[in-house]
């Protein structure tokens, strides 16, 4: 049985390894939540796409306690961690690449915002287009998508792209020097070795939830997919190097 305390310890370890790739991760979280708050509703409906164990969802609810946050992921193990750690959140098991995933959300009104951090780059561009298209059907007019991720520009501005990577790399070096935190692979190897997760690891293996690579890492891929889905304004709200917070406003 996964206890609350054990889940919290593993999520703290998850957050630390994520910071190894994103030393300003908390700053990006803050900017994203600022944008949700600026929509003007004390009780927004927010969908967290690829929520993992709920790190962003939890921070959203801390800032906006009247919000309805629906946290969506396809990974049984990460969902199990989130459910044990954050009983106040609503977690939904759904593969965003499967048409009809919005029908599992239990929405009783259009959502005000959809958010995501370091998740959608795993998804191939054709699937990404379908996801944004379906998302637009459940967002209210003026609702937003806020996607924080590494998004590159080398297909459009290669010299700037090189400088963006350099800015990010220097920030990482300043934060960690020669002693970076545990990496992604090591975290997963450690949790796979913990007997408390045997059942969830087996479920994860059966579900085929593991992923690798970066299928849609270009900024242009996300911008065009959002415009094609009916988001009339698309732009960057926050950025450091190639780490940015992209916002799309539904028309």
Compact description:
GO terms for molecular function: methyltransferase activity. With 251 residues, the chain is α/β, with parallel strands linked by helices. Helices cover 44% and strands 21% of the residues.
Tell me what you see in this structure.
By secondary structure, the protein is α/β, with parallel strands linked by helices. The chain has one domain (4-250): Rossmann fold, CATH 3.40.50.150. It is 44% helix and 21% strand. It contains 9 helices and 7 strands. Strands 3-2-1-4-5-7-6 form a 7-stranded mixed beta sheet, sandwiched between helices. Strand 2 (68-73), helix 4 (76-85) and strand 3 form a beta-alpha-beta unit. It is globular, with a radius of gyration of 18 Å. The mean pLDDT is 96. One of its GO terms (biological process) is methylation.
> Largest beta sheet: what is the strand line-up?
3-2-1-4-5-7-6
Fraction in helix: 40-55%
pLDDT < 50 stretches: none
CATH superfamily: Vaccinia Virus protein VP39
Overall number of structural domains: 1
Number of strands: 7
C-alpha geometry: globular
Q: How does CATH name the architecture?
A: 3-Layer(aba) Sandwich
Q: Count helical runs.
A: 9
CATH topology: Rossmann fold
DSSP strand content? 15-25%
CATH top level is Alpha Beta
If you average the pLDDT, what whole number results?
Answer: 96
N-to-C order of helices and strands: HHEHEHEEHEHHHHEE
**Radius of gyration (Å):** 18 Å
- Main sheet makeup: 7 strands, mixed
* Helix and strand composition category: alpha/beta
Distance between the termini: 46 Å
Organism: Nonomuraea cypriaca
InterPro entries: Methyltransf_25 (IPR041698), SAM-dependent_MTases_sf (IPR029063)
Protein name: Methyltransferase domain-containing protein
Keywords: Methyltransferase, Transferase
């Amino acid at each position: 049985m996964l206890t609350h305390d054990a889940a919290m310890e593993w999520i703290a370890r998850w957050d630390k390894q994520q910071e190894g790739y994103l030393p300003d991760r908390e700053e990006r979280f803050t900017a994203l939540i600022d944008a949700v708050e600026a929509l003007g509703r004390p009780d927004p409906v927010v969908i967290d796409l690829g929520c993992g164990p709920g790190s962003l969802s939890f921070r959203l609810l801390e800032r906006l306690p009247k919000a309805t946050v629906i946290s969506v992921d396809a990974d049984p193990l990460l969902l199990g961690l989130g459910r044990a750690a954050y009983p106040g959140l609503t977690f939904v098991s759904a593969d965003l690449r499967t048409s009809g995933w919005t029908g599992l959300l239990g929405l009783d009104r259009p959502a005000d915002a959809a958010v995501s951090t370091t998740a959608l780059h795993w998804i191939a561009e054709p699937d990404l287009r379908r996801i944004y298209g379906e998302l637009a059907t459940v967002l209210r007019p003026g609702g937003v998508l806020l996607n924080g991720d590494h998004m590159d520009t080398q297909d459009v501005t290669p010299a700037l792209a090189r400088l963006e990577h350099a800015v990010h790399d220097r920030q990482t070096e300043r934060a960690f020097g020669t002693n970076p935190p545990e990496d992604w692979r090591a975290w997963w190897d450690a949790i796979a070795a913990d007997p408390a997760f045997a059942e969830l690891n087996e479920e994860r293996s059966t579900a085929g939830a593991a992923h690798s690579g970066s299928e849609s890492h270009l900024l242009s891929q996300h911008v065009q997919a959002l415009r094609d889905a009916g988001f009339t304004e698309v732009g960057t709200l926050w950025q450091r190097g190639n780490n940015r917070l992209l916002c799309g406003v539904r028309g």
